[in-house]
Design brief:
InterPro entries: Bact_Kbp, LysM, LysM_dom_sf. With 335 residues, the chain is mainly beta. It contains 5 helices and 20 strands.
């Protein structure tokens, strides 16, 4: 996230001096070939694939960031890429994903960082391992290095040193289209380690806290969560919806955390980048024949950071318009 912020500040600074720089620097002209993507262009010429949202946002000729066409010309500067408008390109030629193995491998070498506090959906049937039943000296809240007590003991097969993650339930999540309950939204609070055990209870120390921990928080066995996630192309077509937001806000922007109805069963993987899209309704009054469908409007992009069986957690990395719960997400498999 810091990297995105730094890039944004850098871009603003460069933009402020762009007229002077443009007058002094002669760009390199590059012609787009099959397999090129904004991601690949940013990586190849600016050595930074995270710059691609700026390329997208500042080139009105690129409505959908997948659809840059063979034959389009781009001007390469030391600090930016500009895409020339051209009539030579044809949408039928547009690659929907990186075509070359070299470019796919290039994408997979890039990473995306998170802090581990994004949360997830605990799907129906998943049971907690235990609960925080009390805090040391009857405190109401606990943080890092504080002592708490749990209902996990020797009867559950626990041992001193066992580690657990601490969560709280936010509430049930229903699908915005089908209204089916997908599971419970949960928020990570921190981590703890058991120190002393009784038959059905234990003493533990909080080893990490994202938010304050209270009695009633539930526990799951510790799982190492990758904080640096390799970005990767989808290995199948993915289509789903933003079903909930971490904060509960309906209007979303860059860096907001969302939950999707796509999980391992649907082929979603941590590191997948999906576009946030909306259908455009044609106005039949001005059409000579019935128009069934228009190209989708691309309003943003997000990266999947963790997956359950039928749900996943993602972070919005780009938005050119307000993103909402219920917006559709999609990504085409690399061809």
């Amino acid at each position: 996230m810091k990297k995105h912020l730094c890039l944004a500040l850098l871009f603003l600074g460069l933009t402020a001096t762009a007229p002077f720089a443009a007058a002094q620097e002669q760009p390199t002209i590059y012609t787009i070939v099959p397999g090129d993507t904004l991601w690949g262009l940013s990586q190849r010429f600016l050595k930074d694939p995270y710059y691609w949202p700026n390329v997208w946002a500042n080139n009105q000729a690129v409505g959908n960031p997948h659809f840059i066409y063979p034959g389009q010309k781009v001007r390469i500067y030391s600090d930016r890429i500009e895409i020339e408008q051209t009539q030579a390109a044809s949408p039928a030629q547009a690659p929907q994903a990186p075509a070359s193995q070299e470019l796919r491998e290039e994408q997979q070498a890039v990473t995306f960082s998170v802090n581990g506090s994004q949360g997830f959906l605990i799907e129906n049937g998943m049971q907690p391992a235990g609960t925080v039943i009390s805090l040391h000296q009857n405190r109401e809240m606990a943080g890092t290095d504080d002592i708490v007590y749990t209902d996990i003991g020797r009867a559950q097969g626990a041992n001193p040193g066992d580690r657990y993650q601490v969560f709280k339930k936010i509430g049930p999540v229903s699908h915005p289209v089908t209204n089916v309950i997908l599971g419970q939204q949960v928020m990570p609070l921190g981590e703890l380690q058991l120190s002393e055990l009784e038959e059905k209870a234990s003493k533990a120390i909080v080893t990490k806290s994202f938010l304050e921990i209270s009695a009633g928080s539930f526990l799951l066995p510790f799982q190492e969560r990758k904080l640096t996630i390799p970005l990767k192309s989808a290995d199948r077509d993915l289509t789903g919806y933003i079903v909930q937001t971490q904060t509960g806000n309906q209007a979303l922007a860059v860096n907001d955390v969302v939950f999707l109805d796509l999980g391992k069963a649907q082929g979603a993987q941590p590191g997948n980048l999906l576009y946030i899209v909306r259908d455009v309704v044609p106005d039949q009054r001005y059409a000579n024949a019935k128009v069934e469908k228009l190209p989708v409007e691309v309003v943003g992009a997000l990266v999947v950071v963790s997956t359950g069986m039928n749900s996943s957690t993602a972070v919005i990395v780009k938005s050119v318009d307000t993103v909402y719960r219920g917006d559709r997400v999609e990504m085409k498999k690399s061809r």
